[in-house]
Specification:
With about 120 residues, this protein is mainly α. It has one domain. Helices cover about 70% and strands about 0% of the residues. It has five helices and no strands. The longest helix is centred in the middle third of the chain and has 30 residues. It is elongated. It starts with 12 loop residues before the first helix and ends with a helix. Belongs to the cytochrome P450 family. Its cofactor is heme. InterPro entries: Cyt_P450_sf (IPR036396). Keywords: Heme, Iron, Metal-binding, Monooxygenase, Oxidoreductase.
Length: about 120
């Protein structure tokens, strides 16, 4: 999913790179013949589990940044109320930013699965 449907001026490379990495590492984890290995890596915060944790953190932070930016825009100008992008529409009915973040990431996941 193009992040521009949420915020038209958003540069997507940081988000898409981290999202792609997190998705690929999650698939590798699911295909691991021995779950004990990835669980141990996660416990020790090493290797692919360390990369996965960092990629998820970046995705969460970037999406929360997008949400915060839009909330500030909507609070400071009445023009923000007229925006018709997807993020603005969700923000009109959802006040919990973490829940909104999860919705945005779900939309990104659906699109990633569709194109990969």
């Amino acid at each position: 999913m193009d992040p521009e449907c949420f915020i038209p001026s958003f540069s997507e490379s940081k988000l898409t790179d981290s999202f792609d990495l997190a998705s690929k590492l999650s698939v590798q984890r699911a295909m691991s013949p021995l779950p004990l290995i990835w669980k141990l890596k996660r416990l020790l915060n090493i290797g692919s589990e360390k990369k996965l944790k960092e990629a998820i953190r970046v995705v969460d932070n970037v999406v929360m940044e997008m949400i915060g930016q839009r909330r500030r825009e909507m609070a400071t100008m009445t023009a923000g109320l007229n925006k018709s992008d997807l993020l603005s529409r969700f923000m009109g009915s959802i006040e919990d930013d973490k829940y909104l973040r999860d919705i945005v990431i779900s939309f990104l996941s659906m699109n990633w699965l569709r194109i990969n």
